[in-house]
Amino acid sequence: HSGVDSKGPDTKKFFENLSGAGKSIGVLTSGGDAQGMNAAVRAVVRMGIYVGAKVYFIHEGYQGMVDGGDNIKEASWESVSSMLQVGGTVIGSARCKDFRTHEGRLRAALNLVQRGITNLCVIGGDGSLTGANLFREEWSGLLDELVQSGQISEEAAQTHSALHIVGMVGSIDNDFCGTDMTIGTDSALHRIIEVVDAIMTTAQSHQRTFVLEVMGRHCGYLALVSALACGADWVLIPEMPPKDGWEEQMCHKLSENRADKKRLNIIIVAEGAIDQNNKPITTELIKDLVVRCLGFDTRVTILGHVQRGGTPSAFDRILASRMGVEAVLALLEASPGTPACVVSLCGNQAVRLPLMECVQMTQEVQKAMDEKRFEEAVKLRGRSFENNLNTYKLLSHHKIDAELPRSSFNVAVLNVGAPAAGMNAAVRSAVRVGITEGHTLFAVNDGFEGFSKGQDFFWYSFRTLPAKHIDKIAEQMRIHNINALLVIGGFEAYLGLLELQAARSKHAELCVPMVMVPATVSNNIPGSDLSIGADTALNAITDTCDRIKQSASGTKRRVFIIETMGGYCGYLATVGGLAAGADAAYIYEEPFDIRDLQSNVEHLTEKMKTSIQRGLVLRNENCSENYTTDFIYQLYSEEGKGVFDCRKNVLGHMQQGGAPSPFDRNFGTKIAAKAMQWISKKLKEFYRKGKEKLDDSACLLGMRRRALVFQPVIQLKDETDFVHRIPKEQWWLRLRPLMKILAKYKTSYDVSDSGQLEHIVRLRAKDISAI
């Protein structure tokens, strides 16, 4: 039983038929290090061994490939244990001059042929990947030279005639075209946000202005997203140099914010920031400017290599693990004619793209910037970058009141259900955009209950459904003349919206545009792959599991049983298990019985005989009525007697708390801004066309594979299991086999969903508006 949707055997292709027997894969990390590279190496090694191939570490990047000897070592299953939670790259990376020479590449080719390696998995930035491609193009020529000089036989040259290359982009700058996120970007954002949050408290105390320099020589992604996530006053990035006269504008905005009783200013600068004439804008320049024009107490902080350090975030571990497995599949499927490709994520979907197309596009961005075609550079960066930039422009729009458009519309915003980290970011963004569009905004206290009493202007969130208050809610909507509703919350919010829609026939006041933005740690909302708050919860689980694993390594031969939240939804247990390197994760969606429990215990008993003497088992709180956390703990304790001992840990409400992760802040900000823009559009339509088409005016805005989509809640009813409060189909179930493979279980893995080779699509204007 693999927990994969049952489309029948014919439409599926399982990778059982993809054997790696007789193949050798070399894995290397090259260029600047990035958090999550180790997770990628671990996934490549384990997946490679799983399919029967030999996998070799190539230490110190291309330098190790050129030097050979002990730098190229065969990897074993255990040799990648405990790597997942370590930042940087364990197998080392070096800038390599030798590989740039023909002579160096010739030596590298010899070292690979001697070990029978014709498959390379390269984890690095665009320079490393370009080098790999050149190597592939020269390969047959290099082999001919080696045959002529008698270093290898004709036969060896025949057997190793084709070199296959798959790349994964590891770079904290997120500067590679064709990929939404590169390995390490999310972790670097974590470091930046931790620092900004810390600086804000001291700036607040002293009424200071802080100028922060973040990494990104040619790409402003880190600066842009961290500015979005922390609400910075001003951001400077290479792709969008400020217009002439920006100095006065910036100082005006800073002083305006101080006049609004804000005690601090934060200015974020990418290290590659330039002005319209391609002259660098440095942090010192900005500091002098602020001191000269405004006399504010100003400090500069340069974050530097802190951003590359630290443990990888949950997102980076999952991204790297998914990509590592995908890379091995791509190598197994490659034929001599297949171009070198990179595996990457687009939205939430694994894709494969021709390496050189991505590299060319990345170089085009730089060229456009050098030639001052900045708007084009932003477009070439891709839709994710452009979306962030547009959202930032939308939110920083700060005009004097008189210049704002006035609409006669009143929009109410409310939070419903349990708290989720990132809700505040969503509220802030929705309110700002609403005010920019000229609406009057009402903040509703205490969710639907507060709505019925007519309280407003404080954020609380209550688990009362509107049904019993419908008459009063309608009355309040009439009193305050509410023309639209934005609901931020989890499953309760979804049920609430359905109830409000159902009551429209009785209450004309409810015939207004309503939109819901999913925010819940459980990630159990139909119509959306992800919800605000789930990423922060995953990081909380991953951090705790890291600590627990560390304590278990100290004790030796210990297994931890950890209970996670999520209601009946196994998202946190499964994806948390993948990020923490768990041996098993019990969830409601994949039924298990005593035989499964027994095989898990046996599996752990075997594991204790190896050098990895610890185990980690996750259990979703509602995965089974009778196999409780205590039951599983007692079963493992009894069965493991003399082999391992057990401990149990219930994570509880720490999963709902904590500072929101950069992903949740950014996701909350973007999705709420989009929801508010939809409300404005609907309000205009309503007043032009009247209210005849009502179904599509109560929607849920969700992330589906590659895009954010508005879906009428009424249509989502069929996709919902209302008893267990989960969607009937959940995309992350396809990650379950991945977790099992990486924990050394034999399982069936459906690759029909794995990325097919695509080409980079130049986005046309109409596509961009659809995103």
Description:
The chain is an alpha/beta fold. Helix content is 42%, strand content 16%. Strands 3-2-1-4-5-10-11 form a seven-stranded mixed sheet, with helices on both faces. Strands 12, 13, 14, 15, 16, 21 and 22 form a seven-stranded mixed sheet that branches. Helix 8 links the parallel strand 7 (234-236) and strand 8. Helix 6 packs across helix 7 and helix 15 crosses helix 16. The longest helix is centred in the C-terminal third of the chain and has 28 residues, at 662-689. The protein starts with 23 loop residues before the first strand and ends with a helix. Mean pLDDT is 89; it is low at 1-12, 456-463 and 763-771.
**Uncertain runs with pLDDT below 50, 5 residues or more?**
1-12, 456-463, 763-771
H/I helix tally: 25
> What percent of residues are in strands?
15-25%
Tell me the major beta sheet. 7 strands, mixed
Please compute the radius of gyration using only Cα atoms: 27 Å
* Oligomeric state as shown: single chain
Structural class designation:
alpha/beta
Give the strand line-up of the largest sheet. 3-2-1-4-5-10-11
